[in-house]
Amino acid sequence: DSSLPKPLKIRLDVTDPSIVKLRTADSDTAGTRVRVLGRVHRLRSQKDVIFLVLSDGYGYLQCVLTGDLIKTYDAMTLTLETSLAIHGEMHAVPPTKHAPNDRELHADFFTVIGCAPGDMEAINTRVAPNADPQTLYDNRHLVLRGETSSSVMKVRAATLRAFRSTFEANRILEVTPPAMVQTQVEGGSTLFAFDYYGETAYLTQSSQLYLETCLPSLGDVFCICPSFRAERSLTRRHLSEYTHIEAELDFITFQDLLDHLESVICNVIDLVTADSQVARYIKDLNPNFQPPARPFKRMKYSEAIDWLREHNIPNEDGNPHEFGDDIAEAAERKMTDILNEPIFLTYFPADLKAFYMKKDPEDRRVTESVDVLMPGVGEIVGASMRMDNWDELMEAYKKEDMNPAPYYWYTDQRKYGTSPHGGYGLGLERFLAWLCGRYTVRECCLYPRFTGRCTP
Ligand code: 4AD
């Protein structure tokens, strides 16, 4: 029937012609009759005209309602987030005016699909930008409809795609280790325990130990799974549940591990920014973002201690840093922000690091370990070579007061053909906080979990 509106020409990829999405920016649509579906994202009512920006999760389209259309009850009571079907004709935006993708829809008909409240219940009242943070977290489901939050989620999806394709290109296989475990990886203090059919079990802190068991049968492996940490402090970079990107590589040296990390991070940034739409989100979110230059700065822990002393940045007790001190979050971030480039911080003292880390054969006080630090966030990756000697591992359990029994399957890797191997864990939300220039990792996941919050 030629009298029916034609679907928007820019959506030839969609099989059902009755549903029109706003995904493609195509300015060559003037004169096309279309039918679009979405929600009112912005609304400006004047005496003779209503301008609204429709959003459908794919894009934005300015729609112009005039004449008899705006004299209807539905038009006069229109509110933000109301879902609509609008029919009309595409036009270029007049040269002095602005609209998404420089196009607009001149409506000749519309129907309301689902109303949304106005006044005190209106979305922009409930999630006003100056609302207190708790109110915004309570209303995260509505905050996500905003341009900032939805852009971060789109960059997040692109980043996950980029990691997967980088791993694929390096022939690193994806596996899915369990989230319910009976071992700790990163210390007992941040374990979430629960009752597992009468036994104590934990939510995993890291899938590393399981990845190590895959090397003999599957070669290099990675996983992208949630990790859980019962962090007690409320900081802007700690979540209780976060998305952990972990990989484990067999028959490598520490130098190989460092080179691999640098190349994965740079490749992911290249892939993410090669998509012009995603690059635009990043530009809007973080106008000053620059892809990191290679090679990354490499700095030993001992050099960092000297650097902190020289720059009068004290340790947590307010004293000058000494070899053996933990470099706390505040000091680490100050250093990273001053140096203002990615840093590979290497060779941490064994006493500061997890039981499984391999000692440096040249200096057995320190480990073959590296934290990757990024400006604005600090540590985004923790990595190391793994202790591959059976006796040494048994010693390490003893030193940490860990019962080796539940780790028999991990220890067995040193018994049945051990190998020099290493790997890393990258916190996706921290990576995104850096890439998208967000103040906190809480803005970089769908529904953040942190101390005291497990809803919505
Ligand atoms: O340094 P972490 O604790 O290292 C491990 O878990 C290793 N077992 C990983 C491995 O080698 N396979 O954690 C790795 C990364 C950190 O650098 C950080 O980016 C992130 O995980 N991370 C957190 N992100 C958000 N909230 C938290 N509470 C986090 N704890 C760690």
Automatic annotation (TrEMBL):
Official protein name in the record: asparagine--tRNA ligase
Location(s) in or outside the cell: Cytoplasm
UniProt entry tagged with the keyword Ligase: yes
GO cellular component term of the entry, any: cytoplasm
Lineage, highest ranks first: Eukaryota, Fungi, Dikarya, Ascomycota, Pezizomycotina
Family under the similarity heading: Belongs to the class-II aminoacyl-tRNA synthetase family.
Organism: Elaphomyces granulatus
Catalytic activity, reaction form: tRNA(Asn) + L-asparagine + ATP = L-asparaginyl-tRNA(Asn) + AMP + diphosphate + H(+)
GO molecular function: asparagine-tRNA ligase activity; ATP binding; sequence-specific mRNA binding
Major subcellular site: cytoplasm
Residues of the whole record sequence present: 125 to 580 of 580
Domain Aminoacyl-transfer RNA synthetases class-II family profile: 153-448
Record's keyword terms, sorted: Aminoacyl-tRNA synthetase, ATP-binding, Coiled coil, Cytoplasm, Ligase, Nucleotide-binding, Protein biosynthesis
This enzyme's EC code(s): 6.1.1.22
BP GO annotations: asparaginyl-tRNA aminoacylation
